[in-house]
Amino acid sequence: MVDRLRPSDPPTSSNPRVRQVEAILHGTVIDHIPGHMTLKVANLLARENDQVSIGMNLRSARMGRKGVVKISGRELDARTLSRLALIAPSASVSIIRDTQVVQKFTVPMPKLFEDIARCANPNCVTNHERWASRMEVVNTDPLTVCCIYCERTFLATELALL
Amino acid sequence: MSAGAGEHPVAFPPAALPFAPVQFTGRHVVSISDFSRNDLIHVLELAARMESSKSPARLDGKLMATLFFEPSTRTRLSFEAAMHKLGGKVIGFSDAGSTSTKKGESLADTIRMVERYADVIVMRHPRDGAARLASEISTVPVINGGDGGNQHPSQTFLDLYTIAKLFPALLSGERELTIAFAGDLRYGRTVHSLLTALCHFKVRMLLVAPRGLEMPEQYLNAAAKAGLVVQEVPTLQEVVAQADVLYMTRLQEERFPDPLEFDHIKHSYRITAAMLASAPAHLRILHPLPRVNEIAIDVDATPHAHYFAQAGNGIPVRQALLSLVIGTV
Prior knowledge:
The complex is a heterodimer of chains A (162) and B (329). Chain A contains 2 helices and 11 strands; from the N terminus they run βαββαββββββββ. Chain A has 162 residues and is mainly beta. In chain A, the strands form 3 sheets. Chain A has a 5-stranded antiparallel sheet with strand order 2-3-1-4-5, covered by helices on one side. Chain A has a 4-stranded antiparallel sheet with strand order 6-8-9-10, covered by helices on one side. In chain A, strand 8 and strand 9 form a beta hairpin. Chain B is built from 12 helices and 9 strands. In chain B, 50% of the residues are buried. In chain B, strand 3, helix 4 and strand 4 form a beta-alpha-beta unit. Chain B folds into 2 domains: 153 residues, Rossmann fold, CATH 3.40.50.1370; 158 residues, 3-Layer(aba) Sandwich (Rossmann fold), CATH 3.40.50.
C-alpha cells in the first residue's frame, strides 16, 4: 500500500500515515536534509532521466525544517554517498525495494574526501595540475576539512563539488 | 662557518635523549607538520655535528636536482653550497621560463623525469601543495624549498637551530622562552611553520601584526591545543622589552588595498636601533630575509642583530637534511 499525500492532512511527519512526499516503489530516499541544502542535494543526485520527488521546508521534530529527496529506481554508489556526506552530513538514507525500507543509515562520513570537491584555495596545486583533490576530515560539527596539499582548512560549506 | 655573536654549540639535554629510532632515509621533507619533536631534535643534532666536524659524512657520487620554478637567493644557494661541501654534485634550473613548463609540461611529468636523473630533489614552486604532489610521485626524496604561501620546512629547521644555539633552554626546557613574531603573520609561511614547530617546545608567543594580517586561526588553535601561551600585543616596542627572540617578517605592499594605509603601517612595524636602547642584552632579532624596510640598517651594528648568522646556519641544517634523506648518516 502506497500512502498518498492528502491536502487536507496536517503537513507533519508526526503522523506516520501521512507522507509529505510521494512514496516510491524502488530507489533511495534522502531524509533529514538541512532545508537550504535540499535543491543542492537533488541537483547532486539526479541524473537526466531520473524521476525525482522533492520536499522542501517540511516540518521535522528533530530539525525544525528539513528537506527530503526521493529518487526512483536507483541506489546510491559510494562516490555519491561521499559527495552527499560533504554537503548534507546529517542526512539519512533509506533504500527502498517494493515500497519497503530494506536498509536505513545516516550518511557515512569518510576520513578522506578524494576527488569529491575543489579545494577552495585558488592557489592550491590541485586547481592548476591534473591531480585529484584530497581533503581530510578534521572536525565533524561543523564539518571541516583540511586539504592535504595546501594544508588549508575549510568549512564544507565553502567547497564546490567536482 | 662562523657561529655568529652569542651562539653556542647546540646542547642536547639528557631529557631529549635517547631518541626513539628516527628513520629518515628516503623520507620527503614537505611540511614541518610531518615531523615529531624527536625528528626535529634529530635534525638539529646532526646539523650541530655537521657544523663542528671538519669532515662530515660525504655525499660523493650523489646528485641533487634543484627545481626552482620561482626565484630564490638563500635557499637555492645554501642547498647548493651544502651539497658541494658534502662532495655531491648539483643540476637544476632557477628559472621555469627556460624549461618545458613553459611549453605546458605538468609538474607531475617534470618530477617523473627528474627522479630518474637525481638522488634528491629540492624544489620551490609558486603553488601551495606542489611539494606534497611531487612527493607522491617521486621515488627519490623531495625537499620542499617553499611551495607558494604554504610551507618552507628547511627554513624552519634553520630557525629552530638558530634559536637552540642562542638559547639552549629551547631544548632543555629549563625556562620558558619568549618568542615574538612581528609583521605579516597571515601570509608569511615562515611564521606559520615556525609556530607549528614551536608547539613541541616550552615557549610563550607574542604576536604583533597589522589588522587583517594576524596569525590565521588554525595555527592559533594548534598552538592552544599544544598548551602554548599566545598573546597578541599591539606594538613592537612592547615586545622588545619582554622577548628573548624577535622574529621579524616583511610587510608586502600588495597586501594593502590602500597605499596610504601601507605607508602608515610600515613605520609602525619597523625596528630601529633607537627602539632597542631599552631592550634586554640577550634579545636577538631574526628574519628569514630578504629584509626591506622592517629592520633599519642601524640595527645591523647592534648586538641584537642575528639575521645574517641565522642565514649562515642554513648550511649545516641543509647538510643534515640532505645526508639524512639520502641515507648516508
